[in-house]
Design goal:
With about 120 residues, the protein is mainly alpha-helical. It is about 80% helix and about 0% strand. α1 crosses α2.
């Protein structure tokens, strides 16, 4: 949510007009991905607060748990895309595009390792 908030106010800054076309595209990828990540990561807790008290459906039904897990996983993927895009954008603005590509690859690889490889492969 903090990442989304910072991305939300960025276009209101006067220096935003100085961004090149590629950087504006990367910004919008980060903005859109962080918005989708926020929605998807909040959805499972919204389900608990909206559906269970109103409908009486059990809070821990298997289908509901699986849906929540899928929503959280999709939110994690969008968050990883948003973080990668922000790393690219900030590094490209501070240094240069070639270093930005390297930084994005490194951060994305670490995120994939920590968030997907470890739970799916290492802890099998």
């Amino acid at each position: 949510m903090t990442l989304f908030a910072f991305l939300l106010i960025l276009p209101l800054q006067t220096s935003f007009a100085d961004l090149r076309g590629v950087d504006k595209s990367v910004y919008y990828i980060a903005f859109g991905s962080s918005a989708l990540a926020s929605v998807l990561l909040i959805a499972p807790s919204a389900h608990q607060r909206v559906r269970a008290p109103i409908s009486g459906i059990k809070r821990r039904s298997f289908a509901h748990v699986m849906t929540a897990a899928r929503l959280a996983l999709a939110g994690t993927v969008f968050f990883m895309v948003a973080v990668g895009a922000v790393v690219y954008l900030v590094t490209a603005l501070v240094f240069a595009a070639p270093l930005a590509i390297v930084a994005t690859i490194v951060v994305s690889a670490v995120a994939m390792w920590a968030w997907f490889y470890l739970p799916l492969i290492h802890f099998r």
